[in-house]
Design brief:
This protein is mainly β and 176 residues long. The chain is built from no helices and 13 strands. It has one domain. An 8-stranded antiparallel β-sheet has the order 1-13-3-9-10-11-6-7, with no helix packed on it.
Length: 176
């Protein structure tokens, strides 16, 4: 696999929101993308996992229906690991945990494959390292969007309005 990264976009995660759209980042220029989630944290002391990732279709709509599948290995430092497998969900959880910034934050690196190819499913592969007020976490995830369509972006997603984001950065690169 090629290893040269071409910077596409950086998005600052704003305080007080439950979704962050990273739109118009996928194109015919690349088949593979690398995404960094850096220092993502919550606005309040919530001690939870961030729901995860949703994709944005070619018309600019966030895909909120149960078209995703994933398998996740969650590895907390203070307890036994857990495996999660879902054939149909309305998001992909990629193992990132967070809390208010004083208690820790979430970080992840993710590869996204074939998002702009309308004849292929979009796949993701990620690993995460996080800390919240209860533990340190490592995570590995594989996921798929089970509809072949053109995808132009993605959304960082949190379902609970009381668990808004506090900050962080998302960086997107094309892989050559």
């Amino acid at each position: 696999m090629a290893t040269e990264l071409q910077f596409i976009k950086s998005v600052t995660v704003l305080s007080g929101v439950t979704t962050v759209n990273v739109d118009n980042v996928f194109s015919a220029n690349y088949d593979v993308y690398f995404v960094q989630f850096v220092g993502i944290y919550q606005s309040t002391n919530v001690d939870n996992g961030i729901e995860g990732l949703r994709l944005i279709d070619n018309a600019g709509s966030v895909i909120t229906t149960s078209e995703y599948g994933y398998a996740n290995l969650n590895m907390p430092s203070g307890s036994a690991f857990a495996e999660n497998r879902f054939a149909t969900r309305d998001f992909i959880f990629f193992g990132m945990y967070a809390d208010q910034v004083s208690d820790g934050n979430g970080n992840a690196s993710m590869y996204i494959y074939n998002p702009y190819d309308s004849s292929s499913y979009t796949f993701i592969q990620s690993q995460s390292a996080s800390k919240n007020s209860s533990d340190f976490y490592g995570g590995k995830t594989i996921g798929v969007h089970q509809v072949a369509e053109t995808i132009r972006g993605f959304q960082l997603y949190e379902s609970d309005g009381t668990r808004t984001f506090g900050g962080g950065t998302i960086n997107v690169y094309g892989v050559k």
